[in-house]
Write a sequence for this structure.
């Protein structure tokens, strides 16, 4: 499972999450790891996230359940997952958009 929290602020940001099997101390040198890349942007009332994955390691999950929280939003009228309307979301009273978990197979996606 992967739970992402994005604190929306004007502008853009890119982050990378490194993951390996947790057992091989030479995983980095042997290039046996995964990089999960997250690009986020917010401009006025629009926010977007792009999620992608590169790399392999022994035991890497074929898919993950991803749950997304976007903090700092005041008004949300629509959520899309890969340009398709996504209905499984709610905007909490504290301004946090919550997307119910979805299955991610490591392919590049846009929210």
């Amino acid at each position: 499972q992967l739970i992402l929290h994005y604190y929306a602020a004007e502008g853009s940001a890119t982050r990378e999450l490194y993951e390996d099997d947790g057992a091989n101390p030479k995983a980095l040198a042997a290039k046996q790891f995964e990089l999960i890349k997250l690009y986020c942007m917010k401009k006025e009332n629009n926010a977007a996230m792009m999620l992608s994955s590169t790399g392999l390691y022994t035991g890497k999950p074929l898919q993950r359940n991803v749950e997304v929280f976007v903090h700092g939003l005041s008004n949300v009228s629509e959520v899309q997952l890969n340009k398709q309307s996504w209905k499984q979301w709610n905007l909490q009273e504290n301004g946090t958009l919550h997307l119910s978990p979805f299955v991610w197979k490591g392919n590049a996606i846009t929210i």
About this structure: The longest strand covers residues 34-43.
